[in-house]
Amino acid sequence: MTNRVEKKLIPEDEQRLRTTITKLKTTIANQNAELQELRQLVTNLTLASAVLTHNKPTPPPMPAAAPDNVVMFRPPPT
Predict the structure, then answer these.
(1) What is the pLDDT of residues 30-52, one digit of tens each?
(2) What DSSP string runs through 37-55?
(3) 10 Å Cβ neighbour count for 68?
(4) CA pair distance 44, 38, nearest whole angstrom
(5) DSSP SS3 for 73
(6) What is the CB-side half-sphere exposure of residue 73 using CA atoms within 13 A?
(7) In angstroms, rounded to a whole number, what is the distance separating the alpha carbons of residues 31 and 9?
(8) Is the pTM value of this prediction over 0.85?
(9) Where are the beta strands (DSSP E) in the chain?
(10) CA 78, CA 70: separation in Å to the nearest integer?
(11) Which among 57, 58, 75 has a CA at the least distance from the CA of 66?
(12) Dihedral sign for Cα atoms in the order 6, 7, 10, 11
């Protein structure tokens, strides 16, 4: 009768655990790569936003008088 060590058999439970660990390591590596990509996208979007905000023209000045379709609740201060 030969024992397990001589045949170098791995128990079924241990084999399943090793397979699961391999899958989890792959998943973690994929998630880390995705996180790095998302960080780069956030950086690029932040820079693009800064450029667009910097080059944004100033808004036109507000009109001094209220438009004719607006009803004032209080009379304007004199």
Answers:
(1) 999 999 999 999 999 999 998 88
(2) HHHHHHHHHHHHHHHHHHT
(3) 6
(4) 10
(5) coil
(6) 0
(7) 33
(8) no
(9) none
(10) 19
(11) 75
(12) negative
Q: Token digits for 18?
A: 């090793």
Rounded to 5 degrees, what are φ and ψ at 66? -70, 145
Cβ–Cβ < 8 Å for 55, 49: no
Per-residue confidence band for 1, with pLDDT thresholds at 50, 70 and 90: very low
The residue whose two tokens read 């667009």 is 52
68 vs 35: CA distance, rounded Å: 54
- For 19-54, letters b (16+ CB in 10 Å) and e give eeeeeeeeeeeeeeeeeeeeeeeeeeeeeeeeeeee
Pairs from 16-24 (Cβ < 8 Å, separation ≥ 24): none
